[in-house]
# Entry
Amino acid sequence: MRTKLIDRYLLSEIVLPFLGGLAFFTFVFLMFQLLRLAEFFIVHGVPFLSLLKLTSLLCVSFLPFALPISFLIGVLLAFGRLSTDSELIALKAGGYSLQRLTVPPLIVAGVVSILSLGLNLQWVPMAERALKAELTEIGNSRIVGAIREGTFTSGFYDLLVYADKVNPKSNQMRGVFIYDEREPKNPLTVVAQQGVWTNRKTSNGGSEAVLKLTQGNIHRSEATEGSYQKIDFDEYRLFLKIEGSAGAPVSKPKMLTASEIRKSIEHSRNRDLRQHRILQGEWWRRLAVALAPLCFVLLGIGHGSLPTRSVRSGSALVAFGVLLIYYGLLSWGGSLAEQGTLPAALALQLGNGVTGLWGWFAFRSASRT
# Structure
């Protein structure tokens, strides 16, 4: 009964700062996207529910990076407070060795690793796809936001666009001039009084933007034949396919689920060596990040148990150092795997290996005190 009470006490000491750290890092990651989200809401008039969906998808995509470091901070703060308040000495005097006290952190680390594994292999790729589809949908439905009135906008779906007046919220334009060079040998110049952008689904499940122009004319000239043609119209529509829309093939490895990435690895084995290495690196990177909390257990206990003047500042300093070293090694390992210098299974475990070894020495040092 007494043992269960101590375990529950340690669990509560770890979980609360872990949740606080998770909220903090998620907020920090979102800070980099706040300006973009604010622009969607203020300039493009994106509904609040769509912004809420975008925010939730972004949070899911951040979790694999936030979970391991938040767990480390939780362990550092928990054992740092126990050490500062002399509770750790009391527990050792009561017969609880530092090795025995690793059980609750290991339980939390196991739960966090399982959650990270599910996120990395299935939920995050699905969230990345949904995020890309949502951004494409917003960009398609609020496409006028990229056009500034009274200014020529080039490179816009291979169009040169000018409008006297632009209304981003209604996707309407007035006084429209368009130079269409999608067919270099047969360019078009379109002038219209009004234009409005709409969105429609294609037969393959994708989407395309449609520019409906009214009350204008089309000018076409062919230099080879020396001819010129003018066509007046009451209504003219330009169809512009949206790249990366729903229904489009997934090209980025981070958007592939576990089963898809395994199939892609097998498919590319004898076809594209570089792509095969990239896919293998992505697979082992996901597994490495999921195993990180287990490698941080001894490191957190070892450094947290050492006496310091300020628990919070000491924990933050250690966590920041681990963050730089771990993700630096993870990035370096990915490069080594892509170049074929080391097998992906070994290269992507460099971060876990170094932090695990670091934690072992820190834990041994703390056990002797």
